[in-house]
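Notes from hallway chat w/ T.B., transcribed later so I don't forget. T.B. wanted the structure written out for a chain they're using in a teaching module, and asked if we could keep both sequence and structure tokens in one place. Agreed to drop them here.
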Amino acid sequence: MLLRLLFVLLIALNIAVGAWLLLGQNDVHRRFVTDPGVPKLRLLSELPPPSSAAARAASVLPPATAAASPAPVQPASSASSALTPASTTALSYACMALGPFATQEDLRIARNALSTQVQRMRARQEQTTQTRGWWVHLPPSQSHAAALAQARALAARNIQDYFVVGSGDDQNTVSLGLFKDPANARKRRDQIQAAGFPVQMSERTETVPEYWLDLIPTDSNHFDWRSTIHDPSIGSHSTGCF
């Protein structure tokens, strides 16, 4: 009977010790309230106060938003302006005029020869005044009889090659020659003047058409029109674009 009672007491004691070991160890019990590897949730009141060194380090660090902000991006206008010089210096163009051409045929030949080197072309005609020569003559007389009297006076001084104009704007004028070279005209004038006559020398002009070719080269930096047009009388100058 005593042995049975001791056996029961031992069993009860074992049960009490096991219950205390299982339920009385709070740390052991809390260790298994979450899945393995997952950190435990702790109240702020349970956290230890931060040290002074850690607080100073936290105050020096910049905000997270500033650290995470991306680097400044160059404006699109600056990027485009940086590319502009390289693109504009690749090709350049300027409007220019070639001429004057003496005939429309000369203009047509030049236009066909330059057609592959230009963007646009146009032909135009202008009126210009050209020198026909230099005229040596006496002043016009009041009448035809007075002009004939001047002619006889020239012949008496052994001066030949004169002509009395009978009609037109220069009627009753004694002509002493029309010269292409102004030096020859001055020599004739001095001869008549030395004979005592009031001789005059004037330039004779006429209005004639001249032809021009306005064009815009594909690339003015490499446009050599003289390698195609070999006429030394043709020149070039800048003109307004069209």
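Follow-up for T.B.: The helical segments are 2-23, 26-30, 52-60, 64-68, 76-88, 104-114, 144-156, 182-194. Might be a good example for the class.
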